[in-house]
Task: structure prediction
Amino acid sequence: MNASIARWMVLVVMLLVTWSTGFAAGNNYKNFDVAVYCRVYEVRQMKDPAYLENAWAAISKHVKVDKIYLETHRDTIVVDQETLDQAKKFFEGKGLKVAGGITATINESNQFETYCYSNPEHRRKLQEVVEFTARNFDEIILDDFFFTSCKCDLCIRAKGNRSWTEYRLGLMDEAGRSLVMKPARAANPNVKITIKYPNWYDHFQNLGFNLETEPKYFDKIYTGTETRDPVYSNQHLQQYHGYSIFRYFENVKPGGNGGGWVDSGGLRNLDRYAEQLWLTLFAKAPEITLFDIRQLYQPIRQEDGSMAPESELARLAGYVFQQVDGFAGRLGRPIGVKTYKPYHSSGEDFLASYLGMIGIPMDIVPEFPAEAQTVLLTEAAKYDPTIVDRIKRQLQDGKHVVITSGLLKALQGKGIEDIVELEYTGRTVSTREFFGRGLSARSETDILIPEIRYATNDSWEVVSALTSPSRTTGTPILHSARYSKGVLYVLTIPQAQGDLYSLPADVLTAIRNVVGRDLYVRLEAPSQVSLFVYDNDTFIVESFRESTGTVRIVTDRRIARLRDLVTGRELTGQPRGDRMVFETFVRPGSYSVLSAAQ
Ligand SMILES: [Zn+2]
Result:
């Protein structure tokens, strides 16, 4: 190749690069925006133009990025103005929205050491960081760490006789107002501030995340939908959690949940990374943030020893975004079984995610959903002191209330007996055989469940568990009790929540038929097949199982045919009473997007 041709080719390549990145800017995917987050460590590195160019080339070749978050502070490190200006200019030149990020850690690698909000010096430091960031950006996001785990002597003294939860809830509410919102607005009246919450909502109150007050004064909230490995991670967050947490936070601040946020931490395989992305989008997140540029940018060594910019994660993300963008616009508003979680509550932690994994579409709400025909209440509902009265009112209105065995235990002697006299005996029994009307099923393993005692002919077993090897004793798995014009159900939760997955498909179907009775679609399937339902006769069935299996989809009779929005394939239903039944296969780690066909 002679020199002039080579020069010409370089020019063409440069033009193509300029054209394609210019073209990529703006609203790239039709149904959501994509953002990339950069920690202060990498923002500092952006002093080197080659780093910036290469990292951007690696990511933008696969993903259409709309926004970049440039972090100004983490672990007491603050980026210098000159480097920040250079990075801002670079990304603005690519047509991206540029926003700031702040991580309020002293030392992330020391068990996530947070700021001490009882310490005037720490407070002054954080306020300075906020002011600096607000002078630079009209939009700022606080990463996961705006909580406190500090138990220094100052904090111990300031806490006094209050519980840590009480102390920290008040402390962080105040810190959010006086160290973040007020100084930021003073430095930049146009600034909008988003607080990003991590994935552990049942424990927020213990560390001061205040879901009751903060979403009211922060401009937006944001959702950590990174759930990592459901087995080999300390958190054991189930895959469905990545969907239900986004919906929950949307219900906490309707219209104000800015997006979902996924990282590549704690994964055994890349399929899980892709899955976290699409689950976030199934929840209808308007923006998805990829954390972070360091995880994304993985240069590859070439034969000549030089490094080529590449990003395996971005390639995967780009594939997922392209596919989901093809049908996301067809999904209506997500709906599910309303389950009430009062502010600052816990109990049967993250049970909603496990219930989602057994095929019950979940919709967690922070206010009691009195309008719902069926309400599901877990132990967390005990934090509402008026809960028994609320249950009674639903039943008197002719509605259904399903309570878990954990809530029954918590409300014993606290008024639930006014509705039905049941006893959570405190004995744990083992079962593997179940029966009910038209139902007889065995599980492959023993399941430990709490025993519930009831009065013969006062309330009734819907599904029973046989509880000794001789099968001569039993206890309800699903129990019903009439009260006024309604029915109260008690759903027995195994002693280990994950044992819900061991319940036979027929038992799960009986549970879904009661809990999901108001939905136009239900599943007849084994556990670990989830259903995502939208209000426009469109829904998604996803298998988290390790093998392929048959799933029956049962809909209202009016739906005669279903169309797969990805493959175009059509399914024809078979009538069964007032329902329509569709049979299909689901492969492991895959989903089908189905819509009623005309
Ligand atoms: Zn402290």
Q: What stands out?
A: Residues 112 and 182 are 26 Å apart (CA to CA). The longest strand covers residues 439-454. The two ends are 60 Å apart (CA to CA).
